[in-house]
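step: validate -> pass
step: tokenize input -> pass
step: predict -> running
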Amino acid sequence: MTMSDRTQTFSKLRTAVVGATGYSGMELVRLLRRHPGVELAGLYSSPAAHASSATTENKGPVSPGDASAVRSSVKVDGFDEKHLCESKPDVVFFATPNETSVAVIPQFKDSAFKIIDLSGGFRLKDAAQYPRWYGFDHAAPQMLSQFIYGLPEMNSAVIRKSKWVANPGCYATSALIPLLPMIQDDLLDPAASIVCDSKSGVSGAGKQPTANTHFCEVSESFKAYSVFSHRHTPEIKQALGLNGTSTFIFTPHLLPINRGIFSTLYVKPKPGVSVGSIRRAFTDFYSGAPFVRIYPEGRLPEIKFVTHTNYCDVGIQNDPESSWLILISCIDNLMKGAAGQAVQNMNLMFGLEESSGLE
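step: predict -> pass
step: emit ->
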């Protein structure tokens, strides 16, 4: 059925979620259940997370920090390739671990349905980077060039025509949105490094508990991690077209909160570039972007203004004496950094209103 046929018959998109019991997966299910243009064709646990195909009941979905009452139960099945295909989905979301996506998705390369992968398994174009940054050899390098990088504010035109989309990382989203206008309009001093200092809530580490994410380890503390080794670094540099190792410096930190990312970027504009021209560049670049909010002069974003939304808020502050510019961005890591952005991509891929189901 073509999209024109679908529009004429008012039928809804059939959606399936693999990895529906993780934080991003639960958030996806919550969004899809309320989306006016879709219906759920199936919900599956991650192939790495179930021991059998027995059906389970998951009370929820309730996402981290969601104070609403427990919703009606939803059925989550153990992953089954045949059952998934027989459900005839139009689009399948994979909210699965990186290696799981790489192992499972290739078996569906000839399937009719479209795929949106929330993992990092298909974000990088160079398979040789996966051992260093992700710790494994990529099992399907031939598919990397076929996945479109799913940052709508950067690639909306090609996302609309794509069958396979690699959803961006949460940190990458928070860094790229404030940097893209500066790169496109060639406003940055090429001799100066870009420094990105980012902080994320604990849900960004995923649902599987680790020694570093237990309450007693996170509460009343604040720390940096994966210094010079975080896997979103090559993703950001790839999207910006940056080469070399010293141009972009990224340091992530763990905040003792449930959700949200706060990124502070230190950049140096070219000599003679005014803050007024920078603000105009941002306004022009994001004039048609429904989920990017540029703050007026004198105001800066805060995490509390974006939690449980698909917005990316951006603030701009310059120092006339040093000529350095500070860009601040805030997103909800489970929304614009994961599930919300995935739904935004789905809307684009199927010709729906970009903000449908997200406001």
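step: describe -> The CA atoms of residues 192 and 348 lie 36 Å apart.
step: cleanup -> pass
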